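User: Here's a chain of 128 residues. Predict its fold as tokens.
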Amino acid sequence: MKKELIEELKKKLEEDKANIESQLAKFADKDKNLKGDWDTRFPKMGSGDTGSMAEEQAADEVEEYSKLLSMEHSLESHLQEINGALEKIKKGIYGKCENCNQEIEEERLRAYPAAKLCLKCEKTRKET
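Assistant: Prediction complete.
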């Protein structure tokens, strides 16, 4: 694979990583004990009301927290893929299919720089 292409994709991966970390920082904190993990902060919507209004606010907080947990999981997964691709660049093994060890198509990497599989292996994986 051409060095210029690898540098271009590395830059894109680094930008994507910064963007995802920025999104996560809006509602989660980096876990100090587990590398690569983020912990969603519980939303504080309540205004100190009591009675049925407080119960409704608590239910809204739980619903919001649930949505944020799902978003956190999705962003963390994508971040792990990006970090894996950046690590492969450092090791000089970027762009190789993890299944068949052939080069991943340039078009695929341009569309999704964190791709782990070539199109043929990705298609086979989805069919099984």
